[in-house]
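Got a spare moment? Tell me how you read both lines of this record:
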Amino acid sequence: MKIINTKTVKIVLGENAKDNTQMIHKYTSINDNFHWCHASEFPSAHAIICSEKPNRKDIKKACLLIKETNNKLVGIRRLEFDVVKLKHIKPDNKILGLVHLQAEPKIIKI
């Protein structure tokens, strides 16, 4: 797990499937209104923005961090990311790192 502190918020970035699952459990118990980000339709790191109301710049930063950690995503223009509150994420019971969205995510293009 990698922690990035911006001027306004802490962003937690998973570095593997185990990190992704552990940080969802940990940060959901801290505040389930924090926001979660993930590349839409691609395997990627998960990011948690430790804010109930992150600004657009912080959401974009979290998405860029995800994109920069995956060589397959770096070259994709206008890549879509799902952004949703942690309370709407349910980790899969069988597949480590896989989650199910319980609400329609906000789509951000980077």
Summary: The beta strands are 2-5, 10-13, 35-39, 47-49, 80-85, 89-91, 99-101, 106-109.
